[in-house]
Amino acid sequence: MPGIIRSECLKLKRTFSVKLIWVIPLITLLLSFVLMGGQSVQLGAYNWWYIILLPGSISIFCTAVIQKDARMKYRGVLPLPVDLSRVWLGKVMTGLIFLLSSCLVFFLGVTIVGYLMGQDIPLSSSVLGSLALFITFSWQVPLCMFLTAKIDMFGTILINIFASIGFSILSIKDGLWLIPYALPARLMCPILKLNPNGIPLETGNALLNSNVLIPGIAIAASACVLITLITALRFRRQEAK
Question: What are the boundaries of each domain within the chain?
Answer without folding.
Answer: 2-240
